[in-house]
Amino acid sequence: RDALDVGLPFKGAGAIRPDGIPMLFVGPGDSMEEMKGEAGLPDVSIYSLTDCSLLYRFGGKDPFSPRLFHGYDSSPLVDVETDTLIYPGENGILYTMQLNTQYNPEDGALSIRPSDEVKWTYSTDKTSEEAFWWGMEDSAVVADHFLYIADNAGNMVCMDINTMEVVWLQDILDDTNASPVYEVDAAGNRFIYIAPSLHWQKDAETNTGQVSMYKLNAVTGDIIWQKPYEVHTVNGLSGGIQATPVLGQGPISDLVIVPVARTPYKNTGILVALDKETGEERWRFDMDEFSLSSSVIPWSSPVAVYAEDGTPYIIQCGRGKVYLMDGETGTLLDTLDTGKANIEASPAVFGNTIVVGTRGERILGMTIK
């Protein structure tokens, strides 16, 4: 196919429909005020992947927004059964709409006619245009009819997506970029794992502060445990948890693996495996010890992969490096040097192939042997 020219950078992971209808949803991470014309609008765009045509746009400079800034860092969800789009915005609005999709796979004809658009926004004692901003940068988790998401102000929210009413809210204290992780254990208990980055809690003189990894009761929002880390923020680039944790399976089903940026020093990072029952560290991987780079700050989410016999491995990307680790011990097994460019994207794995994009404008394919 020809390249699809979006006209401006988009930040959240582009989403496609899970039912195979070739439709792409993307949004910019910034209002892009310096760009003029239609391409500079801070809109969510929906494209057909059969011919790269623009199907629909919405969200740009929405007067319903409580915030001047508009951006769409989140990756959206599509409920196939009801043909409904769920799209969180950093403008402080959660959008849902029925797409009314028409698709003919024989000739590729694809159209949508969005209707029943519902917008939800909110206000708390912390949110303002100057501090503890409105808006959602992480991606939502939906389980049954409950939606879980955190915002720039540290509000972790559970919402009934059918009624658009808040079920519970938990204060996790700071700006959240990593997406929540949902778990149902063997007994049917439901949990949320979530962690913020360091923005509002930092010390003004040292640019340091504390953020925590939280395990929450998904039904009530109560904190089951929290694991704190002292981190740094440099020139507005936050430390803390900037990437989404991964839950282990099989031999590591008792672990949640979490990358922590800008700790213990401002240009270093760690990957930790926390006991899901207690929150205590079971192993720690200091990324700076295994790199010639002067800056190793994990923003890429870890991925757990498993051999045919169930042996677990962890893949973690950093600045110019891809690390392969033993999932049970955190022992480094191999490192691939990809160059100096930072890897902020999260790798995708299919079979024994890893694919990841870099800030060096390269997409890399690697093989696990």
Short description:
With 369 residues, this protein is an all-beta fold. The chain is built from no helices and 29 strands.
What's the helix and strand layout?
Blueprint: E1 15-16, E2 23-26, E3 44-48, E4 54-58, E5 77-79, E6 84-88, E7 94-98, E8 102-104, E9 109-111, E10 115-120, E11 141-143, E12 146-150, E13 155-160, E14 165-171, E15 181-184, E16 190-194, E17 208-217, E18 223-232, E19 246-247, E20 255-261, E21 269-275, E22 281-286, E23 303-306, E24 312-317, E25 319-326, E26 332-342, E27 348-350, E28 353-357, E29 363-367
Antiparallel strand pairs: 1-2, 2-3, 3-4, 5-6, 6-7, 7-10, 8-9, 11-12, 12-13, 13-14, 15-16, 16-17, 17-18, 19-20, 20-21, 21-22, 23-24, 24-25, 25-26, 27-28, 28-29
SSE string, helix = H, strand = E? EEEEEEEEEEEEEEEEEEEEEEEEEEEEE
How much β-strand is present in the residues? Answer: 35-45%
Strand order of the largest sheet: 1-2-3-4
Low-confidence stretches: none
- Per DSSP E runs of 2 or more residues, the count of β-strands stands at 29
What is the share of helical residues? under 10%
Distance between the termini: 31 Å
> What form results from the Cα inertia axes?
globular
Class by SSE composition: mainly beta
Return Rg in Å.
20 Å
Described by strand count, sense and barrel closure, the largest sheet is:
4 strands, antiparallel
Helix count from the secondary structure assignment: 0
Nearest-integer average pLDDT: 90
